[in-house]
Design goal:
Strand content: 5-15%
Order of helices and strands: HEHEHEHEHEHHEHEHHHHHHH
Largest sheet: 7 strands, mixed
Distance between the termini: 49 Å
Number of helices: 15
Length: 356
C-alpha cells in the first residue's frame, strides 16, 4: 500500500464535511490503508474520537487541521480587508506537535476569530515545532500567489515554511480535482517550484464525504451552510481508493508515494488514562480520609455548629460513603479550589456533583 489520505474532512468540518469518523476509519481499513489523517476546517473537535477509532482499527492516526490563515495579522479585523483568509494543511508529527496544534487552534478561536478561526505565520512560528506542513489546497496562499502570477512570492512563502518547520517537514501539496479548471494548468508550475527548492510533492484528495453518491446530500449541506442553493462542489470529493488515486496522479506517481513518507514521519502517542487528577498535599502518616474528617471537625467548631446525635450520625454516614468510593481526595481538591477562589475575591458557585 502506497497511498495515505492526508487531507480529509469529517462531519466536524461543520456544514461542510459529511463523513462520520467511525465510518471514515472503517473505509480506510477496508481499503488497506496503513494510516489516515484528519484535517477538519479550523478545529480539532474530532481528534480524540478519531485517534481512538484508528487505534482500534490498527491504523496510524495522523491528527491535523486545515488552518485558516489571516490575510494580514490574525488580530486585524477590518471588514474590507480581513474577511479573506487562506488555507494551510498542518499535521502533528509527535506529541510536541499535537500540543502546539492545540495551542494554535485555541488561539485562532479565542484571539483570531473573524468570520473564521484564523491564525497567522507569526503565531505559527511560535508553535511550529513538531508539525508537518503541506502547502495547501487551491484555497491556500501558495496557490493563490501562482493563480495571480506571483511566482516569486509563492517561492518566498515556501522558504518561510522551510524556516518555520524545517525542510524535511515541508511538502508541496498538489490536488487534481477536475472541476477546479483553473488549477490543473498550474500543476507543472507547482512541480517545477518544488523541484527548484528540492521539496517533495505530496498528492492529496480533498475528501468531504465517503461515497460518490453522497455528493447530492453534500451539496445540500453546502447550500445550508452558505444560504445559497447554487453553491456546490462540481467534482468528486469522496474518499477515493489508491487505485483511483493512481489514475488521478498517473503523471506524478511520486506524489502518492510521498504520502507514505509523510505518514512515516508521524510518531504520536496520546496518553488517555482515565484519571488526570492533582495531588492534594497531606501530612506524612495521614490519609485523605483522615484529612477530610479533620477539616469537617474544624468546620463544625469554626461555624459554632450545635451537633445533635442525628447530625453526628449523618456526618459519619456521609464520610463513610465518601471513603468507600475513594472520593476523599476529590472533596479536598474542590474545597481547596473554592477556598482559594474566595481568598482571591473570585466569585464561586457550585451546586451538585455535576457542577463540582
Amino acid at each position: 500500500m502506497s497511498f495515505v489520505h492526508l487531507h480529509t474532512h469529517s462531519h466536524y468540518s461543520l456544514l461542510d464535511g459529511m463523513s462520520k469518523i467511525p465510518e471514515l476509519v472503517a473505509r480506510a481499513k477496508e481499503l488497506g490503508m496503513p494510516a489516515l489523517a484528519l484535517t477538519d476546517h479550523g478545529n480539532m473537535y474530532g481528534a480524540i474520537e478519531f485517534y481512538n477509532e484508528c487505534k482500534k482499527a490498527e491504523i496510524k492516526p495522523i491528527i491535523g487541521v486545515e488552518a485558516y490563515i489571516a490575510e494580514r495579522r490574525m488580530y486585524d479585523k477590518e471588514p474590507s480587508l480581513d474577511s479573506k483568509r487562506y488555507h494551510l494543511t498542518l499535521l502533528a508529527r509527535n506529541n510536541t506537535g499535537y500540543k502546539n496544534l492545540m495551542k494554535l487552534v485555541s488561539k485562532s478561536h479565542i484571539e483570531g476569530y473573524y468570520y473564521k478561526p484564523r491564525m497567522d505565520l507569526e503565531l505559527i512560528k511560535e508553535h511550529g515545532e513538531g508539525l508537518i506542513c503541506l502547502s495547501g489546497c487551491p484555497g491556500s496562499r501558495f496557490i493563490q500567489h501562482l493563480k495571480s502570477g506571483n511566482r516569486d512570492e509563492a517561492i518566498m512563502l515556501l522558504k518561510t515554511y522551510i524556516e518555520i518547520f524545517g525542510k524535511e517537514h515541508v511538502f508541496v501539496e498538489v490536488m487534481a480535482h477536475e472541476d477546479v479548471e483553473w488549477y490543473i494548468p498550474l500543476i507543472p508550475t507547482i512541480r517545477d517550484i518544488a523541484k527548484s527548492l528540492d521539496l517533495p510533492i505530496v498528492g492529496t484528495w480533498d475528501s468531504h464525504y465517503l461515497n460518490p453518491d453522497d455528493k447530492e446530500a453534500h451539496n445540500t449541506l453546502l447550500a445550508i451552510n452558505t444560504n445559497n442553493q447554487n453553491f456546490k462542489f462540481g467534482g468528486n470529493y469522496s474518499f477515493i481508493s489508491e487505485e483511483e488515486a493512481r489514475k488521478v496522479f498517473s503523471e506524478i506517481p511520486e506524489a502518492l508515494d510521498n504520502t507514505i513518507k509523510v505518514a512515516e514521519l508521524v510518531d504520536l502517542e496520546i496518553e488517555l488514562s482515565p484519571w488526570r487528577f492533582p495531588t492534594y498535599p497531606i501530612e506524612e502518616g495521614s490519609t485523605y480520609n483522615e484529612e477530610l474528617r479533620r477539616l469537617v471537625e474544624e468546620g463544625i467548631i469554626k461555624k459554632n455548629y450545635h451537633q445533635t446525635p442525628e447530625a453526628s450520625s449523618r456526618i459519619e454516614f456521609e464520610l463513610d460513603v465518601i471513603a468507600q468510593k475513594g472520593f476523599s481526595s476529590y472533596f479536598l481538591v474542590v474545597a481547596d479550589l473554592v477556598n482559594t477562589a474566595r481568598e482571591m475575591g473570585i466569585y464561586t458557585n457550585t451546586r451538585g456533583s455535576a457542577a463540582g
